[in-house]
Amino acid sequence: MTDKKASTDYPIHELLAQRWSPYCFEDRPVAQADLRSLFEAARWAASSYNEQPWSFLVATRENPEEFARLLSCLVEGNQGWAKAAPVLVLCVVSLRFSRNNKDNRAAVHDLGLAAGNLVVEATARGLCVHQMIGILPDKAREVYQIPEHSEAWTAMAIGYKGDPAKLPDALKERDLTPRQRKPLSQFVFTGKWGHPSPLVQKRKA
Predict the structure, then answer these.
(1) Buried b (16+ CB within 10 A) or exposed e, 190-199
(2) Taking the model in full, what pTM does it have?
(3) CATH of the domain at 72
(4) What is the pLDDT of residue 202?
(5) Structural domain count, the chain
(6) Does 66 map to a domain?
(7) Which pLDDT does position 2 carry in this prediction?
(8) Which letter, b or e, does each residue of 9-47 get, where b requires 16 or more Cβ atoms within 10 Å of its Cβ?
């Protein structure tokens, strides 16, 4: 998993540098013990008032009927490649606090934190996670009877990185292209919006 290691401007943890989102997965199952640890990592994410507003629906290719149900909740473009992943996960968020039924503005943020924990744990175990916003929330609600004030928000494909040569050309190029990110100066500000913080302005030699 080191062939697309991030080229960072400053040192970061090795797992964060190694993490990336492939489109191609090996035809190889993920052990249940590993999956349990991924969700355990998500369980211990921070959340507003310890609400833990996340839920996960999981299906593996070892259960073809359940896998097909979850796959049907993805947009067509994602179904094309995600059907080869050994594990699919639908990420659901509860948008109201359970303690007072008020809107939880942090809910989606906290789902993201849980997903982040899961992704780091997966990377530590040699697994890859490809997260998707391209899902069909209404279809997911119908298929899984998701309750009111909860919503399917994203999905994940989990497995071992495969050979991108097996992908269609457009997806192959994405898997082979080096990873790129904005420089810190474009999103770390001080004083006013758009003014790069001195913290991230590179000093001239």
Answers:
(1) eeeeeebeee
(2) 0.94
(3) 3.40.109.10
(4) 75
(5) 1
(6) yes
(7) 40
(8) eeeeeeeebbbbbbbbbbeeebeeebbebbbebbeebeb
